[in-house]
What we know:
InterPro entries: HAD-like_sf, HAD-SF_hydro_IA, HAD_2, HAD_sf. With 215 residues, this protein is an alpha/beta fold. It has 2 domains: 2-28 and 102-202, HAD superfamily/HAD-like (Rossmann fold, 3-Layer(aba) Sandwich); 33-97, DNA polymerase, domain 1 (Orthogonal Bundle). The chain is 43% helix and 9% strand. Strands 2-1-3-4-5 form a 5-stranded parallel sheet, covered by helices on one side. Helix 3 (56-67) crosses helix 4. The chain is globular and about 60 Å long. The model is unreliable at 197-215 (pLDDT under 50). The structure holds magnesium ion (MG). Residues 21, 23-25, 148-149 line the site of magnesium ion.
Amino acid sequence: xxxxxxxxxxxxxxxxxxxxxxxxxxxxxxxxxxxxxxxxxxxxxxxxxxxxxxxxxxxxxxxxxxxxxxxxxxxxxxxxxxxxxxxxxxxxxxxxxxxxxxxxxxxxxxxxxxxxxxxxxxxxxxxxxxxxxxxxxxxxxxxxxxxxxxxxxxxxxxxxxxxxxxxxxxxxxxxxxxxxxxxxxxxxxxxxxxxxxxxxxxxxxxxxxxxxxxx
Length: 215
Ligand SMILES: [Mg+2]
């Protein structure tokens, strides 16, 4: 039995879970969703909050940088609005029709013998990332985080995640891996699929699970 425990320990895959960002990571930059979201936020600030148009870009950048999201920043500096109304205005009108099925990505992800979790949280707050880990009951040391934003990668690293920067092959501080495209995942990290063999050998009853989480 002791030998068996040691054997299973040695065969344990490095990651239990992969944690993916959506915009510009799983959803391609070419879908235009992130750009449309940015424009909707600007329109909301002008049309719903009455902020002067000439001040929008600078204020938006400042709030995003200091409060993690423009929405959090607007609330923090005193604008009173309903969160649901904001989300409906900013996200409810996005051109989701631009998102086309990506059979290559789908089969790539489904072929991974690892649980996948896609939380919706307000990064780069470390609390938000910790909350996502808590919801999905994840050990950060055994979770691989995919993200296109350098600041979110660095926030992920601070809470102990291993990180993959998506959208460039240049690694930055805080990124353990860098991928030009999420489609390159198998070439860049073939070890993620190694547990497939180990599953057959060490965990005959264990099957990969897919768990969507919304926070
Ligand atoms: Mg993103």
